Every structure is written in C-alpha cells, then in structure tokens.
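Comment on the following before class.
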Amino acid sequence: MSLIAPSGVRIALVILFSLLWAIWIQPHTIFLRHAVLISGSLLGLYVILQNRALLWRKTAIPIYLIFLLLAWVGFHLLFLSNNFSLQLEEFSTIWKRVLMGLPFAIGLGIAIHSISNTKLASNKTDVCWWVFFCGLCAPSAIYLLRYILTVLAQRYQLNLPEPLLNLAAPSTWYVPKIAWVFFCLPALAVAWAQFLQAQRVDIKAGGHSILYLSVVVLVSAVFYLENIKNGMIYSVILIGFGLANSLLSKRFRWTRKGIGLLLILAIVIGILGSRHLQANRSWNTFMADTKVAEQMEKIDLWKFAGQKGYPKNALGDTVSITNYERMTWAQAALKMIKEQPLGYGLVWKSFGVMAKERWPDSVLTQSHSAWLDLTLGIGIPGVGLILLASFMAMYRLNKRVTNEGLQSRWQSSAIWWIGSILLLMFTTEVSQKTYIDALIFVILYVASTGLGDPNEGSKPHAFKNLN
C-alpha cells in the first residue's frame, strides 16, 4: 500500500514542525500548539502505519526506551508517589503532551529519513530543508523582531500591541530567558554544523555559508541582548568544539573564503563576548564565590533566596547571587538524589518540595540544573533511560553521517540539535512544562531519523514508498 500524495505528507509534517517550534514558547498559543501537535500526530501516525516494519528493527531501541520511560513514570505515579495529587496533575499535563506529540515526532523522523536515503529532485529536498531550518531559527527571529520594535516604540513613543514587544514580568507576554536558550541554541548549533560541513566537502555555496554564519551571529546577539550567561557560554563551547573537530579532520579544506568568514565570526563573537564579560562581573568572582559555596553547611543563606541577605567572598564583596546559589543548590540536589535515587516524582519543583521537608523555613524551588531537577523528579532510572535513548540515537546517526550529500545535512543537524539541548540542561532550569515535551520530541525525532537504511534488506517493507 503506497502513500497518497507522499510529498505533500512530508512537507506538511515539516511545515507543522516549523510552526510548532516557532510558537512553542510563545504565550497565549496553547490552542494553536495543541492543534499543531494533533495534526502532526495524525499525519505522523499515518506515516508510521505505512512504514511500521521500521519499528521492528534493532535501530528502533531508542524509541522503545522512551516508551519504557513513560511506563516508568506511570509506575512511579501508582507505586512510588510521594505527592500523588501533584504528580497526577503533571501526568495529565506534561506527560499528556508528550504522548500527544509522540506520533508526530516519529512520523517526522521517518519522513526525514526518506529524504536522506533517496535520490529526490534537489528542489524538493531543498524546500523541506529550508522550511525545517527556518523553523529552528524562528524563535530567534521573533525575539530580534520584538527587540527592534521595542526600541522603536520607546524611542518614538509608539503604542504597539503587547505581542509585538519584548516585555518583562508580570506581563502575560513575558518569555523567560531559559526559553530563549532552549529554543534558540539549537539553531546556532545546526547552522554552525552546516557551515563547517560545507567547508569540509568544499561545497561551492558561499551564499549558504554566509547565511549559516549569520544565524550563528544573530543567535549570539539574542543571548547578548537578553544578557543570558548560559546562552553565551554554550555558544562558545559549541563553536569551539565544532571548530576543533573540523580542524583535526583530515578532510577539512582551508580556503581563503572559509578562513575569512571564520575571522569575521571570531571578531564579532569576540566583541559580544568581551562586552558580556564587562557587564557581568560574576565571571570575575567565580572562584571566590565557589569557596563560599563550599561552606554551605556553615553558611546557609542559600536557602532563603536573599530574604536574609548574602555572604561576602574573600575579595570582600557580596557573592554573585548566580554563582553562589547555583553552586550550593547543586550540592544540595546531589545529596537529595543520593537519599532518594528513585526520585520524588515531580518533574517540576521536586527540589523545592524536598527542601521544604528538610528545612521548613526555606523558600527554594529548583536547583537550576535541569539534569539534577529531572533526576530528583523521575529518579536515576528515568534520567538513565533519557540519556541512553539520546546517546544510542546519536551514535546510530553518527555512524551513518558521511561527508557529502543530503544524508549528512539532515543527520548531522539532528546530532547537533539534540547535543545542544543535552548540553544546556546542565545549568539551565528547563526540567519543566514545555521543555520536557520538546526534549522527548527531539529524542524521538532523532531516533526515528536513524531507524535504518532501506537498502539493508532485513525487511522487505522496512521503508514504504514515501517518494
């Protein structure tokens, strides 16, 4: 049985994804988000049913690990719950949305898999790629557009609608910094990977290289303008890792154009980084603040979110709130994990609830590390399943990434996409709400993109007529 209008199904899935990624963090869009999720999942389910033989391959193990994660969450709710009512509320919101998007992510991955393994007309594949890439860049573009309109509104005293402006809390249109990091950093990672890929294979597409580098700069500008330290440091890490990996590769080709573009990027990032460091003295006091944080048992002001003040460091200055609190919270979270390795049960705010039980006068909420908060919520088994599924999916794709063609473009972008998210979760408090939905979506997408080569021959209908 062949698909009806298969090219239309593929492009529809890509368009729906791009729309979803663009609005996922935007306030007052929940109805539209659910409509996109449901539409994408219906199309995705259709693709899955037509290519269900793919799910019988051993390459589908990462997908089944996510199914096992959902089973673990349900088991935890029924038999290990510490706060059944709150845990049930999360189960009916966060995990319900994960289930809603599950067929969407898998179907999208299979559709992309068909592109990376068939010789299609370049105009068809390019349409899918650029729609997909524009979707990844959409949150950054929305931020920058709002920033420009906000500056113009302030300068010329324009009365613009709130949705067009970057507004702070308590405005209902406020978007927190962590959201911009989570949904903008992948665009930087993917754009940087595509630029480096072009240099390795000597693709004569100077315009594309400039476009990709422009995205790197613009996403960095988002982090600079919003003064997001997490975004700045992870941008530098990703750029440095990609550059080092490429320079060590024997296939990297030094061209004058490539070197020139890299120098321009280095200058721009250097200027933004320098000004960011000047505006954030906390980088200079990091070591001194660390020594104070190591005395968390003796100096326990970290429990009260500033209500009782903050200590001074060896320099005689009040500690940087960010440095001091995050380091002490991380230590406290690690101790809690050791005490309760199966997790408290709440994806969001397990740290705060557990802290309240230990120190009734504390006012803590999250540890500000997604990995620590998530481990406190769903335990070491739950986080272990997430990491195992992620690394298995990345490993599968990495084995198949070549240095030319569409296969590398799609698969390398998937690796960098999920890699950037796994990285930012170390120090970003994104173990909550839509971030978990998006994390599981990305893992399932990456796993489905690497389900296998249709020419491997183990199943006669392993990949069914998506062209």
Notes: The longest helix spans residues 122-156. The mean pLDDT is 87. The two ends are 13 Å apart (CA to CA). The CA atoms of residues 70 and 99 lie 9 Å apart.
